Amino acid sequence: MPKRNSIRVKVNGQTREAEVEPRLLLVHFIRDVLGLTGTHVGCDTTNCGACTVLLDGRAIKSCTAFAVQADGREIRTVEGVASNGKLHALQEGFKEEHGLQCGFCTPGMIMSACALLERNPHPTEEEIRWGISGNLCRCTGYQNIVKAVQYAANKLA
Amino acid sequence: MIPPPFEYLRPKTIPDAIALLQQHGEAAKILSGGQSLIPMMKVRLAKPECLVDINQIEGLQYIEEDNGYLKIGGLTREADIELSELVRTKYPILFDTVTLIADPQVRNLATIGGNLAHGDPANDHPATMLALDAEVVAVGPEGERTIPVKDFFLSVLTTALKHGEILTEIRVPIPPPGSAGAYVKLERKVGDFATVGVAAQLTLSADRICQQAGIGLTNVGSTPLKATRAEDFLRGKSVDEANVLQAAQLAAQAAEPISDLRGPAEYKSAMVKELTKRALTRARERVVL
Questions:
Q1: pLDDT band (50, 70, 90) for residue A1
Q2: For residue range B120-150, what is the model confidence (pLDDT) as tens digits?
Q3: Given this model, what pLDDT does residue B118 score?
Q4: What is the mean pLDDT of residues A56-63?
């Protein structure tokens, strides 16, 4: 039985504890151990950003980090974006502006956009595109994703 | 894709980290940002039996000017370099470089120390640090030493760092007045590694004669390259269009690219020439006399 490390991670505001192998990727910890399957494995090669979550408020690609690195730290996934059953402005934006088709990239887009808006509440279009430049979408051509983020920025202003 | 099992240790101090690296020997690797190492581990190109995670060590994240140098802590995240007002306003060559590294998520974890210590000729900082004649500080079992960046890159994924040494600081000599630089990168898409990248740093006299030139090349060799013949050529001359072209030609001759998925070697050499032209021109345009 390979050696396991104890980790304690705050996930969407809740403290979660687990015994994990060091080689367990953060994305697999989130999906398979915690059961939060909103975060997706897309390319598995650090390109597509479908696995994006916030680690201590910073957007990271969870397929390129180990769960053990999150010990003692805080992560936020797409499941933690709505509050008290109310959609976050970003989620509303993706709905209103048709910012998704298949939806596979969407959680990652929302997490990147979330981090962007928290740091820069009034981004220009260029800043939005730069902010999501680590997230790939095969369906939409990004136009409506940008509009969704603009919708959210306006709503939150 | 899953790495083979390994042990994970997270020391809180540099001496603890060094001790662990020595204790576990060559089977242990430093984990900094992990944005180069972890992808390699996932495809099992790297199989360290032990990871020494240095991210909890304090005092290694800073960007400051001190004693004639721009000093950057080895654990400084690329994203923080991108946000630094000092870097954006006073060191545009470094701002160019950092904004061209991968993407926002990768930059949130990736560190400048790791970017250099990993020894990948495709990484972007090495060319810029070669152009700036920078040094790195390594702390290891035998104490602290300073290594000029031009002596740092030995071969693919191999640097002058000895096992047990941690790259704690990057030092850039503050360029004299009349200096400026630029980094230009050709990539297939945003976030990609460079097909070709060129860093150019110039110092001009009041009558616009080149006093100093630094030219670094990304991803056209088994190590990042310093185009010394191009640099020597420019010294003492005016950085006009004709001389820029000559220097660009010399830089292209210094490149040793391989043909791969980013293009044939001949194409890459041609692009070294073109990008050197652009980098030198932009550097010259940025010089304020």
A1: confident
A2: 999 999 999 999 999 999 999 999 999 999 9
A3: 97
A4: 98
Does the distance separating the beta carbons of B106 and A64 come in below 8 Å?
Answer: yes
Whether residue B208 sits in one domain with residue B167 = no
Q: How many domains does chain B have?
A: 3
Domain around B67:
63-173
pTM (two decimals): 0.96
Q: Which two tokens stand for residue B239?
A: 């950085």
CA of B79: which chain A residue's CA is closest? A58
| Together in a domain, A94 and A69 | no
pLDDT at residue A157 tops 90? no
Pair A70, A125 in one domain: no
Strands annotated E in A38-133 = 52-55, 58-61, 74-76
Considering only CB atoms, B105 lies closest to which of A52, A66, A68, namely A52
Distance CA B285, CA B287 (A): 6
ipTM: 0.97
Is B28 among the domain residues?
A: yes
- Does B157 share its domain with B83? yes
Q: Do A133 and B191 touch (CB under 8 A)?
A: yes
CA A2 to chain centre: 30
Per-residue pLDDT tens over the stretch B54-77: 999 999 999 999 999 999 999 999
The residue out of A52, A80, A108 marking a domain boundary is A80
Cβ neighbours of A66 in B, within 8 Å: 8, 34, 38, 51
User: What does each C-alpha distance from B211 to B206, B244, B266 come to in angstroms?
Assistant: 10, 14, 32
Radius of gyration of chain B (CA): 19
Q: Show the tokens assigned to B288.
A: 């304020």
> Mutate which of A23, A24, A55 to test chain B, going by most B C-beta atoms within 10 A?
A23
**B79 shares contact with chain A (CB less than 8 Å):** yes
Please give the residue of chain B at the shortest CA–CA distance from A7: B8
Q: What is the pLDDT of residue A139?
A: 98
